[in-house]
Amino acid sequence: MVCNGCGVCEPVCEYKAITIVGDPNTPERRKAVINEGLCMGCGTCVAACPSGALEQKGFKNNQILAQIDAALVGGGK
Ligand code: SF4
Ligand code: SF4
User: Fold this and answer.
1) Atom 3 (ligand 2): residue with closest C-alpha?
2) CA of 10 to the centre of ligand 1 (A)
3) Does pLDDT of 54 surpass 70?
4) CB distance 21 to ligand 1 below 6 Å
5) Count of domains in the chain?
6) Any idea what the CATH number is for the domain that residue 52 is in?
């Protein structure tokens, strides 16, 4: 399962660490980006994600979240 940009995770993060961004070239493709500097590793977004995208990325701590960010944003480039 991958992030489909549904946006469910964005409002549940009380630390405002999640932003949903669109690909400039394909605006219909949107994905979640986690700001590792703001993320407190609470795990709320993992529970909220209906597609399991965050859980599957091996959520554990901020270091792993940095990898999530890279995977969600930079994947395929
Ligand atoms: S784990 Fe990080 S990004 Fe997810 S809800 Fe908690 S603070 Fe926000
Ligand atoms: S990480 Fe999950 S909840 Fe957040 S936008 Fe992607 S699919 Fe939706």
Assistant:
1) 49
2) 9
3) yes
4) no
5) 1
6) 3.30.70
